[in-house]
Amino acid sequence: MQGANTTSANLNQTNDPPSKQDLEQSNIPQSEIIHNSTKDVEANDPIDPSKPNAGSYYNDDGHRRSSRLKSESSLLSSEGDYERYYDALHEEDFKLQDDMQNPISFVATSNKDTIYWHQAMKQPDSEEFVKAVVKEVNGHIQNDHWQLVPRSEVPPDAEVVPSVWAMRRKRNLTTNEITKYKARLNMHGGKQTYGVNYYETFAPVVSWFGIRLLVVFAIVFHWSLRQVDFVMAYTQAPIEMDMYMELPAGISTKHGDSKSHVLKLLANLYGQKQAGRVWNEYLVGKLRSIGFEQSKVDDCVFYRGDVVFIVYVDDGMFLGRCDRQLTSIIKELVDLGLDIEDQGHPADYVGVNIRKLQDGSYEFTQRAIIDSVIADVGLDGPNIATKPVPAKSTVHLHAHKSSPAFNGRFNYRSVVGKLNYLAQTTRPDIMYATHQIAKYSSDPRKEHGEAIIYLVRYLKGTRHLGLKFKVDRTKGFECYVDADFSGA
């Protein structure tokens, strides 16, 4: 995309950040607003992505600029001068990066396809991320999700929360091919204060028991399944209170100094602590208004006659007698003002590949997540020996307090989290081994790390396996109970 800049929310690309170690090792985007544009632009005007300007990632002729800030570097006599200039310009940005190093909240280190602003601008496919940024900002502007206001108008008891860009390459879970580039503008929820700009935060999601049950009904009764996505779901729900956010990186205004103006949010954004709850309550209200009843067992399962609907945050799935019936219900929701993308028959649902086979059965697999775990522990190379079972029958894991500490060659807790998701969704064969490994996440030892390596070797050899749902009409209703009567 040549000259992806704006006459409104000017997407000035900071040329590649300097190769400073503290910036290179950070996984956090620049929150400082780039305001070296020569144009007067507004953050809430339409975007014209066709015209490059002085603050862009491109020259006036539309060609890519060099990896240094040439307009400024000519004024600097040495690399040291450049570094001091850059550090001064982005002093607050470095502080924000330091504040956001919590690996539980920011997981880009374990997923090369989930990256941040300064990382995306250094990728060979950075132009695709630029397009995604333009699309994201255009969507917010066209839907009046914010208003540009002087910082002086922010009430003294309100907080101005930083913003964060999160970039992502979405891939086909079967072929691993890139299907979409996404840029999501988030509020830095970690900077919110309880009682000031948020209160309750809990939001339910459908259980995997509910998802599997829906598929079983589809097989047994030969009914239709339909997957839907609620576009920019959190922004569709009305905001609960006045909230203010710093301008995101890449957006410049006619006011020049980014510190003089902020965004007053008119809609919820991703990253807000309460956004999930507000969106869920809003969706439940819409569903009830057209006759759906909420399940008493699972808060994210809804019924209306012979139609069932489940939702996992912004990913929904309908089950009904025929496609025409489901199309009619989707239209009802659209008429209520919901922005819905009809994705047809389920294929990739919340990280699980769903495939309907010729005999009418369904297969659930998670090869992409298995490949991610394999890469995390460093077993993605050729000629890696695999294992026939998830764990050694001769090894009994315990605390191993006298053993050396785990060497940290991979993120133990991150891998355990992925293994646990696999075990609960499509790979019950690794459930016991995963639970044993997870028990020692707080103080892993050498033996625990070796147990993970053994389990991942097993997954590498069985990555094609998953759950298969097929009707067996020779059997009636079967019920399984705890064999040891819960330890009694």
The secondary structure category is alpha+beta
Number of domains: 3
Average of pLDDT: 78
Considering DSSP H and I runs of 4 or more, what fraction of the residues is helical? 25-40%
Question: For the terminal residues, how far apart are their CA atoms?
Answer: 67 Å
**Uncertain parts:** 1-109
| Strand runs, count | 19
What is the beta-strand fraction?
15-25%
Across the major sheet, the strand order is 11-12-13-14-7-15
Oligomer: single chain
For the largest beta-sheet, the strand count, sense and barrel status come to: 6 strands, antiparallel
Number of helices in the DSSP assignment: 14
Radius of gyration: 25 Å
Q: Which term fits the overall shape? A: globular
What order do the helices and strands come in, and which of them pair?
Blueprint: E1 10-11, H1 21-24, H2 70-73, H3 79-89, H4 91-99, E2 114-116, H5 117-120, H6 126-142, E3 146-150, E4 160-161, E5 163-171, E6 178-187, H7 208-221, E7 224-230, H8 233-236, E8 238-245, E9 251-252, E10 261-267, H9 275-289, E11 293-294, E12 301-304, E13 307-312, E14 315-320, H10 323-335, E15 340-342, E16 348-349, E17 352-356, E18 362-365, H11 367-376, H12 412-425, H13 431-438, H14 446-461, E19 467-469
Parallel strand pairs: 4-8
Antiparallel strand pairs: 1-9, 2-5, 3-10, 5-6, 7-14, 7-15, 8-10, 11-12, 12-13, 13-14, 16-17, 17-18, 18-19
